[in-house]
Amino acid sequence: MHTRVPRLVERAYERLLQRDIDGAPDHVAVIQDGNRRYARERGDGAADGHREGARTTERVLRWCQDLGVEELTLYAFSTENFERPPAERAHLFDLIESKLRSFADREEVHENGVCIRALGEVHRLPERVRDAVAYAEERTGDYDRFRLNVALAYGGRAELLGAARETLRSVAAGDLDPADVDAAEIERRLYARPVRDVDLIVRTGGDERTSNFLPWHANGNEAAVFFCAPYWPEFSKIDFLRAIRTYESREASWRHTRRERAAALVRAVAGSSLVETREVIGRLRNQLPNGGTDELTAELDRGDAGTTE
């Protein structure tokens, strides 16, 4: 009885959160932190924590598909993880290899059109892991309904540095004009760009930092960030729904801020020319959410008396 009541409350809270959510981010990236601490606090080895974490990963993949998230990136193995003890690294490599192959063979992966691919310096991984990556990518490469990116031997600074070096080599070889180096050119030279920019980063385990994860795709998109205390094996659907709610709140706040800035711009030019002011509003229409220019038009109407034709 004592355990049943908290579960009923938990399920009720989960339903409440789900009703509050109006939509979901297109692309969620997760830093799966706390596997080792989870195991240590239970007197288990690191391998046990990683196994429990792998089960959470499977659940999160299902939640994403249920909520309409279209892309999920998991920080499975960072470049810093190469510094871990050899025995732990070996277990991690075994687990990654096993999960990549089993995921690629799952019926629901093929039914739901899940495309699996690796991001990072895959060449640094053991051959058995590289083979598993190739197997998963080949088995699911034709799908496009949901994308699962697994960051392996990944480091954000290394990714940006590699893109910069490749760009410089192309310029030095005369294959690229320096004047043509823009954001799109750098993006093209990253490890393997996710289809979408990151909308939400989730980090478990209590640390409030993004750990060199997807700096171009997340920071460049001003992604929302959700930090939570539970270790990755303990991460629940309620935690995930709270993360989605954080994303929605941030988006609403950002839309409001953009409208306020645009309205201020309209007020600033309203005293010059009605034609010019309407041109400004026209340009802003593509940058604001649907209906976002309604209040700008009202602002213009209020300022018509001070403008000249």
> What is the CATH architecture annotation of the largest domain?
3-Layer(aba) Sandwich
Give the overall silhouette. Answer: globular
Low-confidence stretches: 304-309
Secondary-structure element order, as H and E? HEHHEHHEHEHHEEHHH
User: What's the average pLDDT?
Assistant: 83
Catalytic activity: geranylgeranyl diphosphate + 7 isopentenyl diphosphate = tri-trans,hepta-cis-undecaprenyl diphosphate + 7 diphosphate
Cofactor: Mg(2+)
Family: Belongs to the UPP synthase family.
Subunit structure: Homodimer.
Q: What does this entry look like structurally?
A:
The chain has 309 residues and is α/β, with parallel strands linked by helices. It folds into 2 domains: 25-235, Decaprenyl diphosphate synthase-like (Undecaprenyl pyrophosphate synthetase); 255-306, no CATH class. The chain has 11 helices and 6 strands. It has helices at 4-20, 35-41, 46-67, 86-105, 107-111, 127-140, 156-172, 183-188, 237-269, 274-284, 294-303; strands spanning 27-31, 71-78, 114-119, 146-154, 200-203, 224-227. A 6-stranded parallel beta sheet has the order 3-4-2-1-5-6, with helices on both faces. Helix 6 links the parallel strand 3 and strand 4. Helix 2 packs across helix 3 and helix 3 (46-67) runs parallel beside helix 4 (86-105). The longest helix has 33 residues, at 237-269. The radius of gyration is 24 Å and the shape is globular. Substrate binds at residues 34-37, 50, 78-80, 82, 84, 203, 209-211. It comes from Haloplanus salinus. GO terms for molecular function: ditrans,polycis-polyprenyl diphosphate synthase [(2E,6E)-farnesyl diphosphate specific] activity; magnesium ion binding.
